[in-house]
Amino acid sequence: MPNKFFIFILILALIGLVIAVSKESYRRYQIDKEAADLKKEIASLEEKNESLTDLLNYFNSEKFLEKEARLKLNLTKEGEKLVIISSDKTAGPENQDESNQEEEISNFEKWWRWLGFDKDF
Hints:
Blueprint: H1 2-59, H2 62-73, H3 93-104, H4 107-114
């Protein structure tokens, strides 16, 4: 009988050992998976950091500063002439007089003309 009791205890210990090893291997699997995810995130952040560093270097470069000075401050180099081309049709003085006349006409008169009643009878 002591032999059967000893085998029973041994089987229980073996089952407990298998369960403990299984839990530990699953925990190790989860940790390895989390470490891999963190490595991917680190790589992504390093790439983003490199991109931002390049952008910062560009913003601090003479080329960028010159471009911004030309665009926003209308600065030119020696010997250059600044030409501004406007697509606004009401910019000329001849068009401003017409727009002032239209503003003086009431809304009712504009509708009257649009409907075709602007001709004198």
